[in-house]
Amino acid sequence: MAVRTFDGVQAAAVENPAPRRRAAARTVPRILAPVVLFALLGIGWQWVAAKQPSVLPPLGGVLGDLAAQPGFYLSNLRETLASALIGGTAGIGVALLLAVIVVHAPWLGSAVMPAAVLIHATPILAIAPALIVAFGFGRTPHVIVVALITFFPMLINAITGLRAVDPQALEVFRSMAASRRDVFFRLRVPSSLGYLFSSGKTCVTLAVIGAIVSEFTGTDKGIGAVIVQSTTYLNLVQMWGAIFVAALCSLTLLGLVGLAERLVVRW
Domain ABC transmembrane type-1 spans what residues (predicted)? Predict the structure, then answer.
C-alpha cells in the first residue's frame, strides 16, 4: 500500500484488486477442471468394477498392489525407461542431424523422405520379432524399436521448424554477409524451438509406448513384459498397476519437456 501526501494530509492509495481477481478467476477453473474430470473417471471406474469385476478391478486393489510391492514395479520401470531414453535419444539425434542436412542440401530431401515415410509406415509389432531374431534377447531390439518410432515425428518437425524463418530476417542476415553458421544458430535454431519442443512432447510419449510394445515379446523384464504376464494369468490388478506406472512415467517425461520449453523459449 503506497502513501501519498497532499498539503500535509496523508492518504492511502489502495491498489486495484481487479487484475488479481481476474487472474484468480482464470486459475481456479484450470485447477478445478482436471480434478473434477479425474473424480468423475474414478466414479465411473468404480461403477464398472462393481458391475463387471472381470473387466476392471477396484481402484483400491490396484493402488494397494502398487503400495505393497513398489520395488517390483520400479525395477521393471527402470528397464522400460532405459530402453525409452536410449532409443529416444538415438532416434531424435539422427532425425535432427538429417534435418540439418536436408535444410542445407534440399536435393537430399528426395532421398531421405521416402525412406523416412517407409520407416514410419512399417508396423512396430511386425518388425519387433524380426529384430529379436537379428539381435538376440538383449536390450538392443527394444532400443531400435524406440528409435524407429521417435525418428519420423522429430524429423518432420525439425525440417519444418528450420525452414520456418522470417524471410525479411533472412534477407537482413544475407545483406550483412552473415555466414551459414550464423544464420543457422542465430536465426534458424531460435525459429525452430517451438516446433522442436512440440515434437519432443510427442516423442517422449512415443518412446515409452515403443519400449512397452517392444517388451511384449522376447523378454521377461519391463512394464510390457509385466502386462503380458499378468494378462496371461488374468491378474487384472497387476496389469492395471503396470499401466498406471507407465502412464505416470509418460506424464512425468511430458512435464519435464514442458518445463524445459518454458525455461528455454521465453518469447
Answer: 77-261
